[in-house]
């Protein structure tokens, strides 16, 4: 059933958009990511203008993350103290990211910025995650016990705080910086930032994998909600009809994804996520080098 989206000024199939939200909701529950790294490119591939895709995708991320978070809270797999530190940094970063988004949009370069950001970040993170997860899986199968983690530079920083759920006593500076970086990405790319935050929480902060997913979702909820509000009040590019269809699918999918994630080993989850990230990066990279069907496009800038 086709439906007209007033802000995007295009007609799309409602069932297709619901299906996108459902798939991304499953990924949110499985991997602890908001799913924006997938939903935003898929919306763009479906004919939604990139500015509307970025601003609207964060609505779906909020809904699917809330649904997934409740499932993890029931299992007590959420470090609320760590999540709060990440959230504070994320709110600050989101404000910076939305400012950059609007500045590049006024210069007419926002489409290029979004595509390049996805290709570079997804390609880098996906490759690193795939290599590390493959090594961990091979060690597990061979029965080799990895060496005990040593303290790194993170543990020597000041302003330390005890995170009981994660079993850590580290400085609040690294998680705050991670949150800030993720917030900037959320504002520019319409992502929850889980594909950056999850590896950072595991490999940089040393958090247990079982706690990482729920804690990531906790931070994503507040940062993406704040990002949505900023986009709605500054660029006027949030399409609520599109957001509603994505939300309905995302809430249902997140519950399914959480159950699937509980049945898989941590190494398997990370390999699957890495492959998804690399696939999306490859598709966007091809879009940058292949000649488009329409060499020129016009965009109506609202709120001026």
TrEMBL record:
Domain of life assignment: Bacteria
Transmembrane segments annotated in the record for this chain: 12-45, 51-73, 85-104, 116-138, 184-204, 211-230, 236-257, 269-290
Pfam families from the UniProt entry: TauE
Chief subcellular location: membrane
Keywords assigned: Cell membrane, Membrane, Transmembrane, Transmembrane helix
Subcellular location: Cell membrane; Membrane
Cellular component, GO annotation: plasma membrane
Topology of the protein relative to the lipid bilayer: Multi-pass membrane protein
Family named by the database record: Belongs to the 4-toluene sulfonate uptake permease (TSUP) (TC 2.A.102) family.
Name under which the protein is recorded: Probable membrane transporter protein
């Amino acid at each position: 059933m086709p439906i007209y989206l007033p802000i995007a000024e295009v007609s799309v199939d409602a069932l297709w958009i619901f299906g996108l939200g459902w798939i991304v909701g499953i990924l949110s529950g499985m991997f602890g990511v908001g799913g924006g790294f997938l939903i935003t490119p898929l919306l763009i591939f479906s004919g939604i203008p990139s500015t509307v895709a970025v601003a609207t995708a964060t609505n779906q991320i909020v809904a699917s993350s809330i649904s997934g978070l409740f499932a993890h809270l029931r299992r007590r797999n959420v470090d609320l103290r760590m999540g709060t530190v990440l959230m504070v940094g994320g709110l600050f970063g989101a404000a910076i990211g939305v400012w950059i988004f609007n500045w590049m949009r006024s210069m007419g370069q926002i489409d290029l910025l979004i595509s390049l950001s996805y290709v570079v970040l997804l390609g880098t993170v996906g490759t690193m995650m795939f290599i590390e997860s493959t090594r961990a899986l091979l060690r597990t199968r061979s029965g080799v016990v990895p060496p005990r983690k040593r303290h790194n530079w993170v543990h020597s920083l000041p302003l330390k705080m005890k995170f009981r759920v994660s079993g850590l006593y580290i400085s609040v500076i690294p998680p705050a910086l991670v949150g800030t970086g993720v917030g900037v990405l959320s504002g520019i790319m319409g992502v929850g930032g889980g594909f950056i935050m999850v590896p950072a929480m595991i490999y940089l902060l040393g958090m247990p994998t079982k706690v990482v997913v729920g804690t990531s979702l906790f931070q994503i909820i507040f940062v993406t909600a704040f990002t949505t509000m900023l986009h709605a009040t500054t660029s006027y590019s949030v399409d609520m009809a599109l957001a509603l269809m994505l939300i309905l699918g995302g809430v249902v999918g997140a519950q399914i994804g959480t159950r699937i994630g509980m049945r898989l080993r941590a190494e398997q989850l990370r390999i699957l996520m890495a492959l998804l990230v690399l696939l999306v990066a490859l598709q966007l990279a091809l879009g940058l080098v292949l000649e488009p069907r329409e060499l020129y496009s016009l965009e109506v800038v609202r709120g001026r």
